[in-house]
Input
Amino acid sequence: MTKRAAIRGALVDVRNASAHKAVRLTVEVPAELAEEVLGVFGWPTGVRPVPVAVARMQDEPEQPTAPPTVSLAQHAGALCRDAIFQRFLGAADYDDATRKVRERCAVVSRSEFVAGTPAGERWRTLVEEFHGWQAAERSGAR
Output
């Protein structure tokens, strides 16, 4: 029988894992629980991944609940490095993706992407289009 356990951690990062058509979640668990984590889950490998479930837990008021924020410009820079986002834009590489984002959002620099501004809204709209395109790709609609 497989051991089952719930161990509190914090989701701190989500990234596209384009080679696997998945997203990679980074969950940080307090160091004092490391032994418990390894006792329950063992050491996962690419050949023997450990099946898990992901659930949102209620925030604890005594702990910081808000992760460090990433600016829209930083988000744009990260997405421009993503091969799937580049394919969505029809871009050949990072530099081409950066140029296409600037053109599509009518900005000179991604630093103009600030929440609550027209440039920030154009970036948000482009990201929503990208997510819709990704969903269509996954469902085979394209």
In short: The mean pLDDT is 82.
